[in-house]
Structure formats: structure tokens, C-alpha cells
Design goal:
The chain has 408 residues and is of the alpha/beta class. The protein contains twelve helices and 18 strands. Helix content is 36%, strand content 23%.
Amino acid sequence: MSNASIEGVWRARVFRWRPLEGGWTWSVGLHARVQVYTYENSGRPWTFIVDGVIYRRALNGSMLAKWRPPGQPRQRRRLNPDDARRVEARARAQIAAFLRDWEAGQVTFRQPPPPDMRDRMRAALRFDEQASRADAQRFHQVYHPIGILPPDQYLAVVVQITQGCSFNTCTFCTFYRGQPFRIRSPEQVEAHARAVRAFLGPGLPMRRGVFLGAANALVTPMPRLLPALEAVRRVFPEPRFADLYAFLDAFSGERKRRADYEALAARGLRRVYIGLESGHGPLLRFLRKPGTPEDALAAVQAMKAAGLSVGIIILLGAGGHRFAAGHVQDTIALLNALPLTRDDILYFSELVVTPDMPYAHDAVREGIRPLSPAEQIAQQKAMVAGLRFRNPASRPRISRYDIREFVY
């Protein structure tokens, strides 16, 4: 299939239609006034850009809206399903008007449109409100709640080999509250993976890689984990899904040895994401996070020796002013001790506190004064400034991780 764009003029505006693997994107207008609509081939909406607002539809039917007012930080809001469906309806109305004008000969094409262009756009019209509701309901039949993913894995296929979190005590995390931790059998993993593949359907090629969910999936004992990975490989044999990724906390990480990670790497595991949060032991205890900085060091050393890359996540603002100095100093020391290379990612994630978090109650009880957004940015800068990688030419990628912008 050619990925060449088709351009033309519709209602005195320039448009461009481009096929994607598993979907297509259609833009109308230019520059600041451009409107963009991206769909999977099934007709399922993916992303819209309308009037300067970016809308990203989640597979569960919800939608995140993001925009940046002039001279202000980016704003975001999670739409409820009804509001999301209204956004979908407005997009369908635009597509329907375009197709009607096309039929009436009122659209000018600069290149001959591909034979399937009209049919692919019509699929979006068939994905009406009823179909959108049914699609969201089907998501909940296929998946347990998907709490969070690393930013570089938002396009992965999630296969949940576990449910919930194996310890679930961190006071700053509510992603897995009320979910008992369970490990699926290899047979259950394969059945789930096949249901995921059927649910994603024609839009599957828009994704790459497989993320093994949920939290702490690699805590699964090796006798069950290896057959589970083989089941995933049977269901997703394509090269684009050959690479596997997963979370693992440092406490559980010490239970696997280098030989275990080598066996996982041989079956496609490429990167393990570790919520390190801090190198400061007292802060980790305040956060009720199991394990110690020494556990994290041992786990990362074993993973790197086995040829895996890692994603290390640091929590900015954790512990407020009381723990700030120790958080910065000890996190720098631990990061400098880790054998990180250019294949690794160092994520800095701002602490986002909500009233239902145990952290919020602990902070009030202990008189913790929070860091402002500017102070959190300064905290990241201080940590980065203190890093001394063994080979500066192969330093890991450093990036922000905003959990408020997660959509799957």
C-alpha cells in the first residue's frame, strides 16, 4: 500500500488525506487553522485536532483534551464518555459533508484518490454513537483497567499477564486500588491475547511492540513467565510486535538473576521500566515503597548484564521540602552508580497529588510543605546537573513523564 498523500481543495480549503498502516489521517486547512482527523481502518477514532485542541480517544471510550492558551502552560481535561461522543459526532459530520460533496463533484483532487479512500472514510461514519458505546463496553470485557504506561509505550499492544500490583502500598499511586493481584496462567494469557488482537482488529498495524501488563508483571515466577511470553509470541508473531516491555519494581527485581533476564531477553524482552522514585531511603519509607536503593542497583546491574535496557522513573516533588535535599543528593548518587547507556531512558515525573491518595493524608499529618511546579523543575535540573555518566557520549535519553497525559 502506498503511503503517498492525496491533496486537493474542498470548500475553498486545502485538504490532505494520507493512508497509514492500519488507519488514515485527513487534514483540512493550513497552519493555525488546520483541523486533523485520524482514524483506525475499523472506523475507531484515534486523534483529532480541532480549533487548537488536541483530542485523543482512549480505547475505553473516554477522551483527553489538551490545549495551550497563549502565554500559559498547557491545559488538559479528561472528557466523560458523553462529551467524548459529542466530539466524535462533530468529526463524523465533517467527514459526511466531505463525502457528500465528493459524490456531487464538488471536491477537487490534485492526484487520483486511491480506490479504498472512500470506503475507509465511510467506516468512520459507521462508527456512530451506538458503535462507540459498544466498542467501549467491549474494551471492559477484554481488559482490566490499564493504570499507566511509560510514554514511549503508548503505541504498544498491552497484554495483561497479571492483574493489579503485587504490593500496592505506595501512597502516591492509586492506579491499582481495589484490584487484587493475580497472575494469569499461560493458557489464560493466550486467550486474553487473542481477545486483544480481535478487539484491536484492523487498527492493529497502527501499534508496535507488546507491553506486558499490568504493574510489576515480571514478578511472575519464571516457570509461568516463560510460557506466558511464548503464548504472546504465538498470538502476535509479526516482527513489529517482536519486542516486549514491562514494569518491575526494584524490590521484586532482586528475585530474578542475570540468567533469568538473559532467558527473558532471548524471548524478546527489550526494556524494563523501574519506578525508582528516589535514591533516598527515608523518602522511600515515607512513600511506603518496598525495597531499598541497594535493591534497585542490584536489579539494574543484573538487567544490564543480561543485555536489557531500562527505563528509570524519578518522582519529582516527592516528600516536599522536608525530603528535598536528601532526595536530590541520594538520587544523584544512585543514578551515577547505575550502568546506564544510550539505550536507556531516564524519566522525570512530577508528583500529582489527589485527595484520595494516602500520600495526601500523610503529607498533611506530617506537615509536609509541597514543592511548587517551578521548584519541581528546579529539582530536576539539580539532579541532571549532578549526573556523571561513565561515557558521556552514550548517556541515556532524559525525558519528562506526565501521568496526566496518559491515554490508551
